[in-house]
Amino acid sequence: MNGDVNETMSSIQLLRDRFCKTYAYAGVPEVCRAPGRVNLIGEHTDYNGLPVLPMALRQSVRIAFAPKKNRLIQVRNANPRYADATFQNGPDIPPSPPGDWTNYCKAAVQGLNVHFGVRSYPGMDLLVDADLPAAAGLSSSSAMVVASSLAYLRAIGKTLEKDISRLELAALLASAEHYVGTRGGGMDQAVIINGKAGYACKIDFFPVRTEHVPLLDDHVIVVCDSTVRVEKSGDALHAYNAGPRLSRLATALLEQTAKAEFDDGVQLERIGDLYFGPLCLTHLEVTELCERTFVKPGMILQEAATRLQCTTESIRERWIGDLPEPSEGFPLQARVRHLRTEFRRVEEARDALQAGDPAAVGALMDESHRSCAGDYFISSPELDVLTQAARNAGAVGARLTGAGFGGATVNLVPTTEKDTFIERITASYYRRYLDFNGNVPVFIAEAGDGAGYLPSSAG
Hints:
By secondary structure, the chain is of the alpha+beta class. Among the domains are: 9-214 and 447-453, 2-Layer Sandwich (Ribosomal Protein S5, domain 2); 237-335, no CATH class. The protein is 41% helix and 18% strand. It contains 14 helices and twelve strands. It has helices spanning 9-22, 103-116, 140-155, 166-176, 187-194, 237-261, 273-276, 283-293, 301-308, 312-320, 332-355, 358-374, 381-392, 418-433; strands at 30-41, 53-68, 72-77, 85-88, 123-130, 199-204, 209-214, 219-225, 397-401, 408-414, 442-445, 452-453. The protein has a six-stranded mixed sheet with strand order 4-3-5-2-1-12, with helices on both faces. Strands 9-10-8-11 form a four-stranded antiparallel sheet. Helix 3 packs across helix 5 (187-194). The longest helix is centred in the middle third of the chain and has 25 residues, at 237-261. The radius of gyration is 22 Å and the shape is globular. The protein starts with 8 loop residues before the first helix and ends in a 6-residue tail after the last strand.
């Protein structure tokens, strides 16, 4: 069976039964699932063409679905927090207001329509359920996109791994999700579709390639939700998009330096091209090139325009959009430093996992958090406190995971210490720091299988 072995037949049947009550005319539905993911290391590197090391989770978004012949797509959620929605399928599907959860379904449908040249525009009835917390840095949004795509593949008569490979679908959906307004890379879609139980997934990009890396036998990954909620498609969209936009500007400036030093024909689409493109530079050579390009911590817009021999308006139009300019200039030096050092940390973490070296993995996680906070500016006071509390509670390594600004942390903990760790983090962060009296949002993350279709019956 495709999908995670942790899916119980009873929960699948409950979802089917609820679908039949919600859509009494639709008949017995199929069910698909798409897991969340937790990124062990490699933050904001994917859209720069640099590798990441996440793992798929057992927790997932599940959709019971049935295609229909008219163009109407109805989306319902088992969680009453999410409003019912209906939209017409067609060649150009208008997005809902920013932050609306149905945009993730629309992104999948529109992306597959374009890819397959769909002209019939079939409809679907969908009932969504999840045991994956939303806006916690575990990629519930991309899981919704992937699960919606699996349902819609059935509606248009296409078969996963026959009409489109898993890697192809991951790349397609990474682009399709731009419909929502976020300009991320392809990590989430790649690991959600290609994860493997018991393994992390090292992912390289452009094109997408995956390598399964065994996890440590004597340590567990504990996810701690900071309780700070960040909706990437809502208020935090501007802050989130600063990463991709400033990376594009930094790439243009690095290309200018590379042209002057190597060849006037050098072209860079993303920072990873320094390593994997025609230049094939070493880590040391890239470091030196970056230091020559970004001499000062900040670069004002006018200086960037002078270097690139264009106007400030052109820079905004081509690269950074409406990002506000800090008085001290854009912190390109620090942002690029994070990307090149995070690349090395991903490679070293993969090697440390294969060697069974938890101390090395933990040290790299700690370094990654410091870089995310100090060089890429995606942490928050709560995330900084939570990671330090985790180290004090016995974690070998702790770092934020996901887009940042809020959400969750990922912590490497000796298996024998997991219960003590949870007790200590509960007392120090949730009770003392947050004065939080509810059920503590902490869980041991088990690596699960990638997205797929679930059994057709509960018998």
